[in-house]
């Protein structure tokens, strides 16, 4: 490429200022937008914004908000967005994807100093959500959103914003269970101290108090059993019912847990009311408390991420409808056939339509995977799911939203079905054999004592069921996997639930999408092959590419560091061929080999765009996708342990480059979304466990069909299809470590099983004798649970440190 000229950096955003830049207040700005933001902050004495982080702002060169937020002036739409509304007070949450540093936090939390009428603004940096309160009598939501967009923090408002308002609130029942059981467990242990020390209370008054405490423990144990342990009891009942009906041959882990809890409860009732002696109430309460804590750890995932998305997550909330009489805004769901809508730059097209007016460059990469936007002429069909790149366009709707191509993709059976994953081989096998063996030992113990000492039948049988509770599976698994999820989260890899980690350890094949997964969405590599261009020739090239909306022209324009451009005497863009213009009396052409009539001898297979000035061929540009950093290393490590394949909706122009990473027969190009899904389903029918990595809507079906679907995202909170996990694109190089760590974590769980089996072997051997007292049960049962948990967490952290994940 031509050499970089002297650079002037924008005071606001840090980008290179071109000759069209602006000088204001002794500072340089790349565009009027950045200068406007500086003026606003300077006028309000808020330039501390720049002191916190140099060049903290977002570039506003190509931002055009004119008319984009007019729909926020419609009361019905605003009411759908508000969390709270009164005559003098409105409150809502806005998602701001461009928040990136401490300066952003400082400015957004001082928004009331910038805009009159704003009462308060509080930013959740992790969620990138702004909690906003304002007075409707002094300002409007439209004015606030336009101000945020002007400052560089344009809110992402989609149809899903209103859908979420009607979503059922998440239950906090588990927290209540933990609180109730924790309260009961603490008091039961406190009231059981006389039993722990085996105090012989001959005094009548003390004996009465001891009896009172014993019956008080009974009352405290009732909510532990009937409220705290209810989900396990219900789960066991359902599992047994399914087993009897032969709908499944898998035993739920709730069965042995419920047997142990019920044995503790009813044995303790017997001890309390018939023997008037020590019972197992503290063991019961402690066990249920630990189980609930483990369950909470298992279900507590990264709440600020959305793993389940439908088309509402991507559609704009409303679009502008154009009619002969007036221009109005309508919600997307209310759009009708034959209405004409106005689509702005970067907006997603919500319904299949015909282009009526404007220059349309439609980016279908989010739907098909094809990375190059397509030029659409007036009268041609534009499919829903495409994204407009360029000026505003008007479209006549051909199908309602519910019947569009995009919606049909989401209504695919693979996406609609409830993806209930089968339990993993490890937990299913352990539960099955553990339950049968425990029941066999308990029954054998009862039969033995029936013939030898009938008085010990029920004490021994219930003691076996009590101490044989599978604490390794119910405690080690959630605590280990919870720790792994936390470590993954520190490395910007967010898994939906602990089961995903177990499934990762069982993967046989990894399948990759190309565009946006192996390649970066935000950049491309460009090289100019030919003689060095003079400053005058660079200016001519800059001038012709400036006038084109074609994405390749934009890439070339952005990589030309000269800022000077000239007016054109003539310009014409040939669809799918190239550009031609006359500038300063010189003819310049830019396009493919056929358009420039390049002789075969001068053509090259790697060429993308040829440049001719006058009659002289100057050279050609080679534009290649920019692959993710560390791709070579990642695929080399993975290929040693897994079979890898590529499924891409893009064309095969990069086949030669990708053959360095994949076997030739494992490269598949030009696939439609349904073909990707079917490909994975065929592999699964061959008993292969599949992990799919993709980024766009075209991958949604394949991600849902896979045993593990991972969405690669440049922004972990925006535009990711439904998936089992979300991986920050910057951490792509850590993928082999994540896979290895998932296997190590499962091995740690297995070791925890062994430790638990040792405890069970010792305690069951004691229990079958019928001599296991409540005091010793109260000591050994919590001790085994705590030691198993600590063992699992410690080994998990050691393993993570060895892999340098913490």
From TrEMBL:
Stretches of the chain forming a coiled coil according to its record: none
Compartment(s): Cell membrane
**Membrane topology, from the record:** Multi-pass membrane protein
Asked if the Swiss-Prot or TrEMBL record annotates the protein with the keyword Acetylation, the reply is no
CC terms in the record's Gene Ontology section: plasma membrane
Give TM segment ranges: 178-197, 209-230, 250-266, 278-297, 433-451, 457-480, 748-769, 775-795
The family database entries (CDD domains) matched by this protein are listed as:
HMA
Q: Name one GO biological process term.
A: copper ion homeostasis
Q: Tell me the protein's name.
A: ATPase
Q: What's the source species for this entry?
A: Arcticibacterium luteifluviistationis
């Amino acid at each position: 490429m031509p050499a970089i000229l002297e650079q002037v950096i924008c005071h606001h955003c840090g980008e290179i200022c071109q000759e069209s830049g602006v000088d204001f207040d002794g500072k340089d700005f790349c565009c009027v937008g950045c200068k406007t933001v500086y003026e606003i902050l300077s006028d309000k004495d808020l330039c501390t914004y720049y002191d916190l982080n140099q060049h903290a702002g977002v570039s506003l060169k190509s931002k055009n908000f004119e008319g984009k937020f007019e729909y926020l002036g419609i009361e019905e739409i605003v009411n759908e967005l508000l969390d709270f509304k009164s005559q003098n007070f409105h409150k809502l949450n806005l998602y701001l994807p461009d928040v990136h540093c401490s300066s952003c936090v400082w400015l957004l939390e001082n928004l009331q100093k910038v805009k009159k009428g704003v009462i308060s603004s509080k930013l959740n940096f992790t969620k990138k959500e702004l909690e906003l309160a304002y007075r409707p009598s002094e300002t409007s939501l439209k004015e606030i959103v336009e101000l945020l967009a002007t400052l560089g923090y344009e809110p992402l408002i989609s149809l899903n914003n209103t859908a979420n308002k009607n979503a059922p609130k998440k239950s906090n029942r588990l927290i209540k269970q933990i609180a109730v059981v924790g309260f009961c467990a603490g008091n039961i242990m406190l009231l059981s101290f006389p039993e722990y020390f085996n105090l012989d209370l001959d005094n009548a008054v003390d004996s009465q108090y001891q009896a009172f405490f014993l019956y008080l423990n009974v009352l405290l144990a009732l909510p532990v059993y009937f409220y705290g342990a209810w989900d396990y009891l219900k789960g066991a009942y359902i599992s047994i019912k399914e087993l009897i009906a032969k709908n499944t041959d898998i035993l739920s882990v709730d069965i042995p847990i419920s047997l142990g809890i019920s044995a503790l409860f009813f044995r303790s009732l017997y001890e309390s009311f018939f023997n008037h002696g020590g019972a197992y109430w503290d063991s019961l309460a402690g066990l249920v408390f630990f189980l609930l804590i483990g369950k909470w750890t298992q279900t507590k995932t990264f709440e600020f991420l959305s793993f389940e998305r439908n088309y509402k997550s991507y559609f704009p909330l409303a679009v502008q409808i154009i009619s002969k009489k007036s221009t109005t805004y309508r919600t997307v769901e209310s759009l009708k056939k034959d209405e004409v809508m106005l689509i702005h730059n970067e907006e997603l097209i919500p319904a299949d339509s015909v282009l009526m007016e404007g220059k349309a460059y439609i980016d279908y990469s989010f739907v098909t995977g094809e990375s190059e936007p397509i030029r659409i002429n007036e009268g041609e069909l534009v499919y829903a799911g495409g994204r407009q790149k360029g000026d505003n366009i008007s479209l006549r709707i051909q199908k309602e939203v519910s019947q569009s191509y995009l919606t049909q993709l989401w209504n695919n059976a693979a996406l609609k079905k409830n993806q209930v994953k089968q339990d993993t081989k490890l937990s299913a096998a352990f539960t099955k054999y553990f339950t049968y063996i425990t029941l066999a030992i308990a029954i054998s113990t009862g039969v033995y004592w029936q013939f030898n000492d009938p008085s010990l039948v029920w004490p021994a049988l219930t003691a076996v069921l009590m101490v044989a509770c599978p604490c390794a599976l119910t405690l080690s698994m959630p605590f280990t996997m919870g720790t792994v999820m936390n470590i993954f989260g520190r490395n910007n890899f967010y898994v939906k639930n602990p089961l995903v980690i177990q499934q990762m350890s069982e993967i046989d094949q990894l399948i990759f999408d190309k565009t946006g997964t192996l390649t970066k969405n935000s950049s491309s590599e460009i090289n100019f092959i030919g003689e060095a261009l003079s400053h005058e020739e660079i200016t001519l090239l800059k001038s012709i590419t400036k006038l084109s909306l074609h994405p390749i022209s934009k890439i070339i324009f952005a990589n030309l560091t000269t800022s000077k451009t000239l007016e054109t005497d003539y310009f014409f863009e040939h669809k799918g061929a190239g550009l031609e213009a006359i500038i300063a009396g010189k003819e310049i052409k830019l396009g493919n080999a056929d358009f420039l009539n390049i002789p075969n001898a001068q053509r090259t297979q790697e060429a993308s765009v040829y440049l001719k000035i006058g009659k002289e061929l100057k050279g050609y540009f080679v534009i290649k996708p920019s692959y993710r950093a560390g791709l070579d290393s990642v695929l080399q490590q993975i290929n040693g342990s897994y079979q890898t394949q590529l499924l891409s909706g893009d064309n095969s122009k990069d086949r030669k480059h990708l053959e360095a990473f994949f076997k030739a027969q494992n490269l598949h190009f030009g696939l439609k979304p349904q073909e990707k899904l079917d490909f994975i389903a065929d592999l699964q029918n061959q008993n292969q466990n599949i992990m799919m990595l993709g980024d766009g809507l075209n991958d949604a079906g394949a991600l849902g069909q896979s045993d593990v679907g991972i969405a690669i995202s440049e922004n972990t909170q925006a535009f990711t299809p439904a998936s089992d996990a979300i991986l920050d694109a910057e951490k792509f190089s850590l993928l082999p470590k994540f896979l290895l760590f998932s296997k190590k974590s499962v091995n740690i769980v297995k070791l925890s099983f062994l430790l638990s089996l040792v405890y069970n072997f010792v305690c069951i051997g004691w229990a079958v004798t019928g001599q296991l007292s409540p005091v010793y049960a109260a000591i050994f049962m919590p001790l085994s649970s705590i030691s198993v948990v600590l063992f699992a967490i410690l080994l998990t952290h050691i393993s993570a440190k060895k892999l340098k994940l913490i």
